Amino acid sequence: GAAVDRRAGRHGAGALGLRAQDEDGELRVGCDADADTIKEMVLEEKMNPLFLAPENFVIAEQDGEIFGIGQIRPIDKAWELASLVVVKEARGNGIGTAIVQELLERHQKKFEAEGKGVPSVLALTLKETKPFYTRMGWMEQPMSMAPMKMQAEASVGGVVAALTGNSLICVKYKFPSVELDSDHSGTIIKNINEK
């Protein structure tokens, strides 16, 4: 009805009718039935086909067809955004952004629910895709700051990237810290001073 028409107008018709911001169940958690599709999509993009646990993935889907995938996975003692793929015909419609935002939101909620600080998330990406990440608040960081497993993956991936005239970079998303919130820290200082 009207809600669908309004969303279509705000975000464009989207590739193949898929609109990233629809609230009618098009972003979902991966399941075992998605394993083969995930692996095919990752291999097609010449990405690392290892560590593809479907339950780590967010899937963008419409009418049973998968248009995009992505995951946040543990790597050493860090977290990595990985395996982000949107099918070529659907690119440029906000699907990748919606997947990344959903993954970051789930990551944040998981750690907040456990009463823990939310660890930053790292990603290896092609230098040409850096603007995609910086628009969402990610910042480039030296590859030497990445966990050793990521550095090893980067050296292998760098060879593949170089064949296409590209280079790999490391980007980081840092969640806002409650401790650094001036309202909260001011309250704590005030309480200490009152005693």
TrEMBL record:
CDD domains: NAT_SF. It holds the Pfam family Acetyltransf_7. Residues 16-153 form the N-acetyltransferase domain. It comes from the Eukaryota. InterPro entries: Acyl_CoA_acyltransferase (IPR016181), GNAT_dom (IPR000182). GO terms for molecular function: acyltransferase activity, transferring groups other than amino-acyl groups. This is N-acetyltransferase domain-containing protein. It comes from Hemiselmis tepida.
